[in-house]
Design goal:
It catalyses: guanosine 3',5'-bis(diphosphate) + H2O = GDP + diphosphate + H(+). InterPro entries: HD/PDEase_dom (IPR003607), HD_domain (IPR006674), MESH1 (IPR052194). ppGpp hydrolyzing enzyme involved in starvation response. Its EC number is 3.1.7.2. The chain is mostly helical. Helix content is 58%, strand content 2%. A two-stranded antiparallel sheet has the order 1-2. Helix 8 runs antiparallel to helix 9. The protein is globular and about 70 Å long.
Length: 219
Amino acid sequence: MENTVSIPSVNHDPFTVVGSCTLCSRKLTEPELLSIVIKCVNFAAIKHKDQRRKDEKETPYINHPIGVANILIEEGKIHDPIVIIAALLHDTVEDTNTTFEEIENEFGTEVCNIVKEVTDDKNLPTMERKRLQIVNAPNKSHKAKLVTLADKLYNLRDLQNSVPVGWSQDRVKEYFKWSKAVIDGCRKTNFHLERQLDLIFAERVSQERELCACKKSLI
């Protein structure tokens, strides 16, 4: 019979098992960590189940947070479960009925704090939210910057592949320009992710120059 894996959650830190003394405390085993990650994927899938991306194929929205987490692991070489779980949850409060309290109770204080850092205040106008992303980017924690870089990388690749329904080329251009401003505030965080982003921006500049008679960069 296979051993059952329990997921302890103590003091809002589900990644540490607290014993009767400091020496008895320990980090989770690999099976326990895997259980939390799968629990998180399931949690995010339920929260985003009725949402779709804005591409023509109306891709299921859950593809996005899973894709962001995959970018962090495969391209960013990040294997910190706190960062990966925060990436899987990064849009749940902003785009669903999830609360920060719910995330903290389920996945711990550190994960919750990262999600807070990358969550826009939907009570603010769109342009103000975008402005604050640029202003706040340099002051984010290292782990929140990692999520931001992977999130922008996923979205920019999406734009390269398919323009969202209803978006004009001017809006696409502005998204690239704004994304670069946010990313510039997260520099010196992860060479691998920033390199991929710079390649995207370089390709965009090249495309713009081909279309622009004066050959000036629009990013």
